[in-house]
Amino acid sequence: MTHAHAVPDTGAARAVQEEAAEELAPLIGRRAALRACGVPQATWYRKNRKSPAPVRPMTPRKVHPAALSAAERDHVRGVLNERFADAAPATAYFTLLDEGTYLASQSTMYRILRTHGEVGRDRRRQATHPLWPSWLNPSAPRAPATPSRPSRSDA
Asked: Distance between CA atoms of 155 and 62, rounded to whole angstroms?
């Protein structure tokens, strides 16, 4: 069964389609009117339902069996912040692999740091630079003027 969509599916166009379906419904029936106007039946019934939407219970997400425990996540974070504070988690991952140690995947390392707000910015300690170089800073104290040397013509 094909549905003819003569009008593009935009908000205003959909309103026109639904209005046309409402006018046709008493003449040819709701289902035929919706099909003729290109309005999906489910959409019409969802918008025009008489009862409230069914309540869907929120079920808590199950922890994946392979997920790291809180202690393991703390250990990974400690290693990343102590030994690799100035390095990206990818660098730490490969360095640890070269040493024969596997703590977690790269993405898990990034995820652990992201939950603590330690990723997304540069992890290195960077020097801060003054806003103005000292010779351009208008509020900096001025050095006393050095006396000019006498010219040869003066001597």
From this structure: 94
The two tokens of residue 99 are 């040493």
Say yes or no: 75 and 111 in one domain. Answer: yes
CA distances from 55 to 45, 49, 52, 58 (A): 17, 14, 9, 9
DSSP string, 71-105: HHHHHHHHHHHHTSTTS-HHHHHHHHHHTT---S-
- Contact call for residues 68 and 108 (beta carbons, < 8 A): yes
CB 5 within 8 A of CB 13: no
CB-count exposure of residue 39 (10 Å: 0-12, 13-18, 19+):
buried
Q: What span, in angstroms and rounded, lies between the C-alpha atoms of 6 and 18? A: 13
> What DSSP state is assigned to residue 75?
H
User: What digits encode the pLDDT tens for the residues 77-120?
Assistant: 999 999 998 888 999 999 999 999 999 999 999 999 999 988 76
Enter the pTM of the model. Answer: 0.45
Number of domains comprising the chain: 2
Q: Is residue 34 part of a domain?
A: yes
Establish if 120 belongs to a structural domain: no
Q: Which domain holds residue 100?
A: 70-115
Does 87 reside within a domain? yes
